[in-house]
Structures are given as C-alpha cells and as structure tokens.
Amino acid sequence: MSRSSRSRSRRRGGGETGKHAAGIALIVLTISVVGAGAYILNTKPERPKLDAASLCPTDGPRSATVILLDASDVLPDVTKRELRTYLVDAATSVPEYGLLEIRLLDPNSPSGTPIFAKCNPGDGSGLDEYTGNPALARKRWEEGFRRPLEAALSGSMEQPSEAQTSPIMTTLQSIAVDRFTGSRAEVIPKTLIVVSDLIEHGPGYSQYSGDLSFEKFRKTDHYRRVRTDLNGAEVTFRYIQRVTRKPINSANHIQFWTDWVKDSNGQFVSAKKLQGAG
Predict the structure, then answer these.
(1) What 3-state class would DSSP assign to 244?
(2) How far apart are CA 185 and CA 160, in angstroms?
(3) What is the CA radius of gyration of the chain?
(4) Alpha-carbon span 17 to 58, nearest angstrom
(5) C-alpha–C-alpha distance, residues 202 and 64, integer Å
(6) CA proximity to 100, closest of 45, 175, 169, 156
(7) Do 241 and 274 touch, CB atoms closer than 8 A?
(8) Domain 64-277 carries which CATH code?
(9) Which of 162, 249, 187 is CA-nearest to residue 213?
(10) Can you tell me the distance from the alpha carbon of 195 to that of 237, in angstroms, rounded to the nearest whole number?
(11) Which of 67, 43, 47, 41 is nearest to 59 (CA)?
(12) Could you give the CA distance from residue 145 to residue 151 in angstroms, rounded to a whole number?
C-alpha cells in the first residue's frame, strides 16, 4: 500500500472513531438528563392536600400567625393607611401552608371576633410549568386568600366598636389556648402580632390609673386570672398612640408589655409606634 493510501485509511478510521465517540457521549448525556429529571420528580416534596374552605393542609397548617387588631376606637386616617400597608405585608408574608388568623378585640367575647382564618395556599411562583399549574395556583391565592384578606381588613378599620372596656390579656390568653397549645402547635413556628393602644382596662385592673409596673401587676388577682403561656410564640407589637386625659408614658408602657411577653413564655421581636394619634 502506498503512503497516500495508508494516510487516507487512517483518516477514515479516525473519522469513524470520532463519530462513534460522539454517539456514545450523546447517549450518556441523554441518560443523565432523563435520570436527573426522574430524580427531581421523585425527590420533590409532595404538595399537601388542601381543605377547600380554609385552604389549609388537611393534616394541619405548617405555621400559625395570629393578628389581634384593636379597633375599639376611631383611628386617624394616617394611622389607618400605615396600618393597612403593614398588615397586608405581614399577612402575605405568611409561609406557604401557614395559617393566618385575624381577630378583633371584642369586650363581649373573651376570644375576640375572628374576621379571617385561612392558610396561604401559595401563589404558584415556585411551581414548574410542566409539573405544576402556576396559573391555577395564582388564581386560587388571589380569589381565596388575598382578596378576602383585604376585604376583612378594610371592614375592620371602618367600624370601631367604641367599647368601654379593653380585655386585651383575656383575648391573648384565649388565642394562646386556641392556636399555640397542643402537640401539633408545639412543633410549628408561631407568631403573634398585636395592633393596639395596649391599654388594658376593666373592672379588675386598669392601666388608666398610671401604674405601669409589671412587678406590681404580678401581685394582682387579675394577673392570676389572665396569666398566659405563649409556648414560644414570637410576638410583635404595633402601638397605636392615644390621647388620654392622663398621659401614658409610652416607653414604660411598652416595657410593661415586653415584660409580659417574657413572663408568658414568648419571644419578644419588636414594638413600633404607628404614626398619628387619636
């Protein structure tokens, strides 16, 4: 065989070998992609079955957030606007499959008046187009969660009850028993948000007297009646400022409630004054 013939033979052999290697690489790549897809589908957490009415998982919510809203007196417009923005942000930040419950302070009901109680079903932003249905999830979130939430908040701030008593501690005690107690509640994150002027007032104890010492409060019969176990819930206060006949020292007042959280087995997160005063 001539030198040129041997050269052509080597080139043909090299070309066939390259094609063969490319084919093997393509097969390996295909198997890897299919395998990776199957792994993702098999290891992706299964979405829980939801209750049609509450939108909560049928085996229970994954977290619990309760907002106690004290609308017992008229709020200034600037306070309403700030409060609405804060509450919508807080509510829509509830984790997926977490319960959001909003209660109004009500002197006629020791548990308060529930105006909203649903789980966040997820807005579909984390769903894949092929393995889920993000459009349907978004619609369910808008119609079943977001819109009813905004309607509940709007109604609650437009109809003040003008109550003569303010049983904040009794209501918080009831919330703790209803939502933060039990084996299921112990293992999920718990959040309590209190939007109020925080002035506890009733026949057994009243902060209008000006005494804001928590240690003195601990010695009262009222303390024993309303003592609460928050079971580790994180607590945030949004402080509504009121113009009262006898001015209340807001710093001492917030400190009282900070001590109350600690005494009630809770975790204090923050306390912030809302703008405006009424």
Answers:
(1) coil
(2) 32
(3) 30
(4) 59
(5) 29
(6) 175
(7) yes
(8) 3.40.50.410
(9) 249
(10) 6
(11) 47
(12) 10
Cα gap 31→150, rounded to integer Å: 49
Q: How many residues does the chain have?
A: 278
Q: Looking at residues 123-130, what average pLDDT do you find?
A: 60
Here the tokens at position 159 are: 């109809």
- Band of residue 180 on the pLDDT scale cut at 50, 70, 90: very high
pLDDT tens digits for range 5-41: 444 444 455 555 555 655 565 554 555 444 544 444 4
- pLDDT at 125 (0 to 100): 73
Tokens of 60: 């229970």
Q: Show the tokens assigned to 68.
A: 């106690």
Mean pLDDT of 127-144: 73
Residue 95 and residue 74 in contact, taking contact as beta carbons nearer than 8 Å: no
> Nearest CA to 64 among 179, 182, 235, 234?
179
- The model's confidence at residue 132, banded by pLDDT at 50, 70 and 90, is low
The rounded distance, in Å, linking the Cα atoms of 159 and 142 is 25
pTM, full prediction: 0.80
In which band, very low, low, confident or very high, does the pLDDT at 255 lie, cut at 50, 70 and 90?
A: very high
DSSP state of 74: P
